[in-house]
Design a protein that fits this description.
- The complex is a heterodimer of chains A (157) and B (158).
- Chain A is of the alpha/beta class.
- Chain A contains six helices and seven strands; from the N terminus they run βαβαβαβαβαβαβ.
- Chain A has one domain: Rossmann fold.
- In chain A, helix 3 crosses helix 4.
- Chain B has one domain: Glycogen Phosphorylase B (Rossmann fold, 3-Layer(aba) Sandwich).
- A six-stranded parallel beta sheet of chain B has the order 3-2-1-4-5-6, with helices on both faces.
- In chain B, helix 1 packs across helix 5.
- Chain B starts with a strand and ends with a helix.
- The chains are: A alpha/beta (157), B alpha/beta (158).
- Chains A and B meet through helix 1 and strand 5 of A and helix 2, helix 3, helix 4 and helix 6 of B.
């Protein structure tokens, strides 16, 4: 704990999500990084700009059907993490976000997994795997949180 | 114009074919983003993919949105307060890797402005009804709670 009265330095936060619903959910959580040194990463060119975010990192998308794509994503995410050196990584998924958590944690970052609100009945596969690497592990459904042991703290809906 | 989207990842021929038949039968103008470069629908305007800008423009100017039960689609409908008909992908038809869209659709069925079409008959009824109201765009207390939790976690690290 730092002494009171001292202005806190903003934390370097990496907000990362795949294009589509994952990204939209991340955008609904932007208020949480107000005042922090936040950087963004996603998988589709032009998407971040549409949300008035300049200088976002572009990473290749991947899913578990192609190990070559996973390897490629892993390498590019690693390079980005070494450049950014975030203190906190927040992701709403999917696989690229999971890879960022795993690699980022090894580099000493605190990590947050927010399982997609699309998973109303059970935690996603990536979410289950993320448990081990997440300092804060959230589901957006109370019943899923209870069944999986994750924390429920609200949802973007 | 009615705007239908199947998301960016997988084609959804069952939905596209149903819309093609409805458009022909009722002489409706429907624009569909299909995620399918080989889509051969005759009575729809369709493209495989849209840029994010173009997607927003289509969604914001549409009279009605139709989509799979993907959260991106739901959040788009909320953002622009557009009525949304969802037609969930089903595992049994090989349309997704599990039945999470059916689960999502079940919970969405209770939401104002979102209408679930469980089959083609329901889809046709909803599409031709012409008086569906949209969801509210206002921020929810549930989202505020999640933001607060996340903010506290980040501030504890800083």
């Amino acid at each position: 704990m730092k002494s009171t009265g001292v202005t806190r330095r903003p934390a370097k936060v990496l907000m990362i999500a795949s294009a589509g619903g994952h990204w939209q959910q991340l955008m609904l959580l932007r208020d949480a990084v107000e005042g922090q040194d936040a950087q963004y990463a996603t998988t589709l060119p032009g998407l971040a700009e549409q949300w008035q975010i300049e200088g976002a990192h572009l990473i290749p998308d991947c899913n578990r059907n192609s190990w070559l794509a996973v390897l490629h994503s892993t390498a590019m995410i690693m390079l980005m993490l070494l450049r950014v050196r975030p203190a906190v990584i927040v992701t709403t998924g999917a696989l690229p976000g999971f890879l960022a958590l795993v690699l980022g944690r090894k580099l000493g970052a605190k990590t947050v997994w927010i399982d997609s609100v699309a998973n109303a009945e059970e935690m996603s596969l990536a979410g289950l795997k993320a448990k081990k690497y997440a300092d804060l592990w959230l589901s957006q459904w109370p019943n899923v949180a209870q069944a999986s042991g994750a924390e429920f703290a609200g949802s973007v809906l | 114009m009615i705007f239908a989207t199947v998301g960016t990842q997988l084609p959804f021929p069952r939905l596209v074919n149903a819309l093609d038949a409805i458009a022909e039968r009722h002489d409706l103008k429907i624009f569909v983003q299909t995620a399918d470069p080989h889509c051969a629908a005759q009575h729809l305007a369709h493209v495989p993919h849209l840029t994010p800008d173009e997607f927003e423009r289509r969604a914001s100017t549409a009279t009605l949105l139709i989509g799979h039960a993907g959260i991106g689609t739901v959040l788009t409908a909320k953002k622009f307060s557009k009525p949304l008909i969802v037609y969930p992908r089903r595992f049994a038809f090989g349309e997704h890797r599990n039945d999470h869209q059916v689960a999502t659709a079940r919970t969405l069925d209770e939401t104002v402005g979102i209408y679930v079409a469980w089959d083609d008959v329901a889809l046709q009824e909803l599409v031709t009804k012409g008086s569906l109201s949209g969801p509210f765009a206002e921020s929810s207390p549930s989202r505020a709670a999640l933001v607060t939790r996340l903010k506290a976690f980040i501030e504890a690290v800083a």
